[in-house]
Amino acid sequence: MCISSNMSIASNMSIATNMSIAIVGKSRLGTSLMRAISYEKSGYKLHSFLQARSSDQFSVLKKNGGPEVLIIATKDDRIREVAKKAMKHCGPNLRFIVHLAGSQASTILPKRKGVAGIVLHPIQTFPRADAALFHSITFVVASEEPSAIAWAEKFARALGASNTLELKNKSLPLYHAMLVIATTSITLGLSAVEELSAELKLTPRTIKRAMRPLLLSALENALAHPAQSIQTGPFARNDKKTIRTHKKALKQSPREIRDLYKALEALGSVS
User: Fold this and answer.
1) Nearest Cα to Cα of residue 192 among 264, 127, 126
2) Which of 73, 105, 101, 104 is nearest to 86 (CA)?
3) How far is CA 131 from the centre of its chain?
4) Mean pLDDT per 10-residue run, the chain (271 residues)?
5) What is the C-alpha to C-alpha distance for residues 127 and 28, in angstroms, rounded to an integer?
6) Contact 239/271 with Cβ under 8 angstroms?
7) Bridge-partner residues for 120, per DSSP?
8) What is the pTM of this model?
């Protein structure tokens, strides 16, 4: 069966559940999806769950006419290759092919008449395989087919998401760069804290426990208000004397930490 590009959203919504799904890629995200579909009564059926590197197993994608949805859950640089190999084996049931990378367009997926390509990116990190990590998150969706957007939004809700955001394919690289800046600034900032704690003769665990209320308060405030409006500290005050003192104290620290401080100073001075 095929979805035509002019099928109405309302009609597509009526077939959004009870579809069979195959997942290729046993990453933490892929495994989380498998568990959500299998164990959380999502309304969808798991057709198959395959290793991306075991293309000799892809013949199962023909079974019972194949899945209606094919999800590629591999590393970003392997999506195009794996999707092409997997789709060759899919039976006539296939309606949607999905990848989960936030930086790449749906157009990297192989073409087949009646099959719509979709980006479905969770704004979440997956340190472990856990279906609960989908609960109350937001997914970003992108596709050239309105019917695919409608399906993806309903599927995201079935996984436990609270919201979806639709973006154009061309906007995905900038969107993903934004996420990387936001999350990496936190983790690398704390990596610098761990490095500097040794110079202070403190264990990273001790100093991070002490900083926890400060960090959580800063994060909550920045999420609730325009970040620039609630900025505090020497950068916001243009306290040049304190900034010079900090730079002097950091002279013996790794260059990467000094560079990080300079980058924060430059950002903090933006009005």
Assistant:
1) 264
2) 73
3) 14
4) 32 58 96 88 89 86 96 96 96 97 97 97 96 97 96 95 97 97 93 94 96 95 90 90 95 94 86 51
5) 7
6) no
7) 141
8) 0.86
The token duo for 44 is 């969808």
Q: Is the dihedral of CA 260, 266, 269, 271 positive or negative?
A: negative
CA pair distance 45, 263, nearest whole angstrom: 49
SS3 state of residue 168:
coil
The answer to whether 55 and 48 have CB atoms below 8 angstroms apart is no
Q: How many other C-beta atoms lie within 10 A of the C-beta of residue 76? A: 14
The tokens describing 177, both together, are 């760069």
Give burial (CB, 10 Å; 0-12/13-18/19+) of 210.
Answer: exposed
**3 state DSSP class of 155:** helix
Q: Are 116 and 143 in contact (CB under 8 A)?
A: yes
Go through the chain and tell me how many residues it has: 271
CA-CA distances (angstroms) from residue 160 to 20, 27, 96, 138?
A: 18, 19, 20, 9
- Beta-sheet pairing, 138-142 with 69-72: unpaired
